[in-house]
Amino acid sequence: MRVLVTSEKDIASQTIKHVLVEEYGFKPSERSFEGNPIFSYDDSTILITTQRDMIYCDHLEVFFDADVFIFCSRHRAESAKPALLVHSTGNLGSEASFGGNPNEVSVSAPSLVSAALKRLFKERNDRNLDEFDVSLEVTHHGPTSMKTPLVFVELGSTEEYWVHTEGARAVAAAIMDCVRTPLLSTTAIGFGGTHYASKFNKLVLEKDYNFGHIAPKYAIDGLTHDVVRQMATRTTSESKIAIIDWKGMNAENKANVFPLLEELGLEIIRDKDA
């Protein structure tokens, strides 16, 4: 079963939920969760609404035996730039200010990340949403501790765009592609670059790579052997390849992370050689 997650506390998720119900045929069932009706798409897909902020939803698998949780989420950014985004979750270091546990990553679903990114680009173009950026984000925030794979698909970046119907339609279309996409795939993990992972976008769109966790330049010097191991193994298909944004990493970054990758037996590939 695939479980789509929305939140009472998330305006964007409620906008996306409205599109899913009105345009994709989700119907209220006889069941509820945290005081909100559960909507059904078919026998294997439901939509739930939690009372919690979604970054604190490590509790969901207590209530749902899911193959994957697909979070329909807002994105917030100081730039206020409208955006359509997708990413895996986790805390790559000792900070856990936005849900989850320190030094822990969730189980990624790389094939769904790729499916969502490709559909978000298509929807941006088809709907003439030229003002919107479309991108992978690196691994960040909670939830982190569940054994069930998860992915966040996001509409950003301010309240003006959290209620943007065409933006929500783009996200809803990407979410429905996540519903239909098989979980198993050949996967890679990424290192380097900025929070918005432009080099890795290109590899997904042009070379059909599937990325689970991505560690940006700002997190690399704090990575531990255990966290890198989690990045490779906490995924629907264990990653054997580490792709490096070569210019998006300095010598100190490389000196820290390359020994960790080698200890774990991961093949190291420069982005230009991928």
Give the strand order, joined by hyphens, for the main sheet: 2-3-4-1-5-10-6-9
Number of helices: 8
Radius of gyration: 18 Å
The biggest beta sheet, please? Answer: 8 strands, mixed
Question: What share of residues is helical?
Answer: 25-40%
CATH architecture call: 3-Layer(aba) Sandwich
Report the principal-axis shape: globular
Decide which structural class fits the backbone.
alpha/beta
**Ends: how far apart?**
34 Å
Topology-level CATH name: Aminopeptidase
- Low-pLDDT runs: none
What's the order of the H and E elements? EHEEEEEEEHEEHHEHEHHEHE
Strand content: 25-35%
Mean pLDDT: 97
Number of strands: 14
CATH superfamily name? AF0625-like
Q: What is the domain tally?
A: 1
Please report the first level of CATH classification, the CATH class: Alpha Beta
Short description:
With 274 residues, the chain is of the alpha/beta class. It has 8 helices and 14 strands.
What does this structure look like?
- With 274 residues, the chain is α/β, with parallel strands linked by helices.
- The chain has one domain: AF0625-like (Aminopeptidase, 3-Layer(aba) Sandwich).
- Helices cover 32% and strands 27% of the residues.
- It contains eight helices and 14 strands.
- An eight-stranded mixed sheet has the order 2-3-4-1-5-10-6-9. Strands 12-11-13-14 form a four-stranded parallel sheet.
- A hairpin with a 2-residue loop joins strand 3 and strand 4.
- Helix 1 packs across helix 4 and helix 2 packs antiparallel against helix 4.
- The chain is globular and about 55 Å long.
